[in-house]
Amino acid sequence: MPKDKVLITGADSYIGQMLLKERTLRDAFSWVELKRDLGKAEILSELSDAKLLLHLYDSRSGSEEQLIADNAGYTGQLIALMEESTDVLPFIYASSDYDDSAYGRSKLLSEQLIREYGQRRRIRNMIYRLPVLIGEQLYLDAGNPLHDLCRQLILDQEAIILPDWEEHRFVDIKDVTGEITRALNGRPFYATVDLSICVIPSEYYAGWERVLSILREIKEKGEAYPLPLHRKNSLEYKLYLTYHSLLDYYSTRDTKSP
Prior knowledge:
The protein contains nine helices and nine strands. The protein has two domains: about 130 residues, NAD(P)-binding Rossmann-like Domain (Rossmann fold), CATH 3.40.50.720; about 100 residues, no CATH class. By secondary structure, the chain is α/β, with parallel strands linked by helices. The strands form two sheets. Strands 2-1-3-4-5-8 form a six-stranded parallel beta sheet, with helices on both faces. Strands 6-7-9 form a three-stranded mixed beta sheet.
């Protein structure tokens, strides 16, 4: 039986790499990466027999105008090509939970384009508004503020700089890839009446001061940290795995840069 074809952008992103590490998922679908510089003819040729588009690409650097061009502009190009070819595919899209930064606004503008496309074409898209990601191999997510906080501790930075003083929502990368897998198999967890916004059911709320306090205890106690006292779905347990994954990573590097 032929496998369903899934198009993916941003395969080299943290989510993309962690998702494609799952052998059962790799084997379940025929994966085709749409690189950012792929030409119009090549994209059109891949659209015809695809099941959906997993849109993980994003750009995080540059001015707000550049971020909008890179993120929303690219999303708009993909939509325009699908509508031009009449091969209209549903999106699974990794959006942002934040609208107070240029990056977040560019992601939310992309989301708006996808929702309007879904309304025009009567397609049910799946959009995940992701907050701060936690979990193993976080070194793959260089722009992540938790990655940076852990790195400061690991490298014994004298003055620890917190990202801000606000409370934030955190989700584990394994829960993200698990929910995307559900969506790929036609079982997304929708959270809105119009069936467009999907959610990651397991989430954690904390301010950076609390996160730093937990990380300091993990660092100071080392192997004596009472990990068995914490449930595997607790924030403490997740931060322990995150910290030690980054500790292993930085211990094998010659440079102290991220």
